[in-house]
Amino acid sequence: MTATRLHRLAVAFLSSAAVLAATSCGYDATPLPPAPDTSAEVAEPAAPPTCDASTATQSFAPDGGADQGQSLQRIRERGFLIAGVAADNYLLGFRNPFTAQIEGFDIDMVNAIAAGIFGTSDGHVQLRVITAADRIPLLAEDEVDIVARNMTINCTRWQQIAFSAEYFRSGQKLLVRKGSGIKSIEDMAGKRACAPVGTTSIENIQALAPEAIPVTATNDTGCLVKFQNGETDAITTDDTVLAGLAAQDPYAEVLATRRLTEEPYGIGVNSERVDLVRFINRVFERMRADGSWQASYNRWLKPSLGVDATQPTPLYGRRP
After folding, report:
1. Using CB atoms within 10 A as the burial measure, which of 37, 192, 219, 259 is most buried?
2. pLDDT-derived band of residue 305, with 50, 70 and 90 as boundaries?
3. How many domains does the chain have?
4. Taking the alpha carbons of 148, 152, 153, 157 in that order, is the dihedral positive or negative?
5. In which domain, by residue range, is 221 found?
6. Do 105 and 163 fall into the same domain?
7. Is the pLDDT of residue 108 over 70?
8. C-alpha of 302 from chain center
9. Does residue 7 belong to any structural domain of this protein?
10. Which residues belong to any copy of the Solute-binding protein family 3/N-terminal domain (predicted)?
11. 157 and 300 fall within a common domain
């Protein structure tokens, strides 16, 4: 074979290799459109390679076109937002015995989201009372649009559903009988601790107090009934929930100790409905600006928790 022939074959081979390389890398010379403007107050960091304790609360940044997404259009065409909530979590989501209406801090979040979609929440919200164990299955099956039920954001749940930005920071504590002798988590060895099934609380107490005896109930009220019947020595869950339980039982007290865990609350959404998550985050930004989040906290939670609080700073940067 001549040198000229070899030279031609080498050029052809290198040209083919370049085409294949460009194809395999998905190269496209078409200029990308500019990134959409956002109303986020916090700079958006690069997406993390993995989810860990420091990035678990990272959500999708709000954007200018979120109110035109398919999820929002579906809800508007239906005429109402379907929200999974609690009806037995005093202060968060509970049925007012005088009005029969479900109200509380979490319900205020639902109403704000509905008002953002429809201009008003009146007549545009369907509250579906669910248990803690129902939350993820109902979202995954698309039977509810959102869940606002003191739901902790964590990496495991991100693998199943999506979350809004953090809208409240709670923490797990213990509720015990006055004079029980239980002063801290260390005193729970051999003692029974109740938490609702399907919550992180029961997992946490087993990790923090391996010698405690776990007891479960369908919901927080079920734990309170067991507590009052002497079937459990303590109830362990978020301090927001325990404050409501203590308000219903004069013989119970929430231990004034440091939180056993940090529990960042988020609104749960089906993982395919990122446009709805972005929209909810826009609503939360608006609540920060107009003071409605602060007003809700001051009404429902501050009197029982006894501490000042502000709306958590959102962490954005998650990619679909």
Report:
1. 219
2. confident
3. 2
4. negative
5. 172-254
6. yes
7. yes
8. 21
9. no
10. 80-304
11. yes
Among candidate residues 132, 53, 46, 116, the one with its CA nearest the CA of residue 81:
116
Cα separation, 16 vs 223, in Å, equals 69
d(CA 106, CA 283): 14
Cα distance between residue 291 and residue 63, in whole Å = 21
**Tens of pLDDT, residues 44-78:** 444 445 799 889 999 999 986 667 899 999 999 99
Three-state helix/strand/coil letters over the chain: CCHHHHHHHHHHHHHHHHHHHHHHCCCCCCCCCCCCCCCCCCCCCCCCCCCCCCCCCCECCCCCCHHHCHHHHHHHHHCCEEEEECCEECCCEEECCCCCCEECHHHHHHHHHHHHHHCCCCCCEEEEECCHHHHHHHHHCCCCCEECCCCECCHHHHCCCEECCCCEEECEEEEEECCCCCCCHHHHCCCEEEEECCCHHHHHHHHHCCCCEEEEECCHHHHHHHHHCCCCCEEEEEHHHHHHHHCCCCCEEECCCCCCCCEEECCEECCCCHHHHHHHHHHHHHHHHHCHHHHHHHHHCHHHHCCCCCCCCCCECCCC
Using alpha carbons, select from 124, 123, 138 the residue that is nearest to residue 85: 138
**Distance spanning both ends of the chain, measured CA to CA:** 55
What's the pLDDT at 310? Answer: 97
pLDDT (average), residues 120-141: 96
With 90 as the cut, is the pLDDT of residue 26 above it? no
Question: Do 250 and 43 contact (CB within 8 A), yes or no?
Answer: no
Sequence letter at residue 131: T
What is d(CA 149, CA 160) in angstroms, rounded to the nearest whole number? 17
Q: What is the CATH classification number for the domain harbouring 226? A: 3.40.190.10
Rounded distance between C-alpha atoms, residue 25 and residue 275, angstroms = 28
